[in-house]
Amino acid sequence: QALENSNGLSNVAIGNRAAQAAGNGDYNIAIGDYAGTNVGYGDDNVAIGRTTLSGLINGSENIAIGKSGVTNLTNGNHNITLGTDSGDLIEVGSGNILIGHATNVTSSTDINTIVIGSGSIGNGPNTTTIGNDTTTHTYLKGVTLTGTTFRMPNYTDVQTGSLSPSNGDMIYNTTVNKFVGYANGAWVELH
Q1: Is 188 helix (H, G, I), strand (E, B) or coil?
Q2: What is the pTM of this model?
Q3: b vs e for 28-41, b when ≥16 Cβ sit within 10 Å of the residue's Cβ?
Q4: Which of 11, 93, 83 is nearest to 52 (CA)?
Q5: b/e code 49-85 from CB counts within 10 Å (16+ = b)
Q6: What does the DSSP 8-state code read for residue 158?
């Protein structure tokens, strides 16, 4: 039965045991069997999909769309997940955005982590990860601006030898402490 133990205001639940223990939480939406099952004191959460946000007890303004999304979150705010089985590691993290099937953070307490791409795993708090381990190219159109410095990948001579470079690739070689580029089939120092 949906909303079985709810004392909150304006909650909406559709599905077997959806928002069953909504407690005193207000303005929550749970659609799907066991969606938002334990939302006790959180407000303004949206759970769409079977078992989505099922562990949430005291978090607010979370949005999870897709079966089994963010099922272990107990106390976090402002998380957004879109994709089945996404965000399962988040327990008390806040401000995370995960888009794609089985996307995840690296720690149960990560904050402000953005992860995009099926099966992609974030790189810790306050980072953005686009693509999973099988992504071969990332295309960014237009001018790319950074609000801070740009850091090239760092490799030693030994590591550089194991790369499969293409003409135009650039790295920082930590053995010689120089920027190097791959041109005409060979690595050349740029300064």
Answers
A1: strand
A2: 0.82
A3: bbbbbbbbbbbbbb
A4: 83
A5: bbbbbbbbebbbbbbbbbbbbbbbbebbbbbbbbbbb
A6: H
E-assigned strands of 1-157?
12-14, 29-31, 46-48, 63-65, 80-82, 97-99, 114-116, 128-130, 154-155
- The H-or-E segment that residue 179 falls in is strand 178-183
- Count CB atoms within 10 A of the CB of residue 22: 27
Give 107-139 pLDDT, tens digit per residue: 999 999 999 999 999 999 999 999 999 998 888
From CA 170, how far away is CA 185, in angstroms rounded?
13
Record the tokens describing residue 171, joined without a space.
Answer: 């790295």
* Residue 73, both tokens: 């979150």
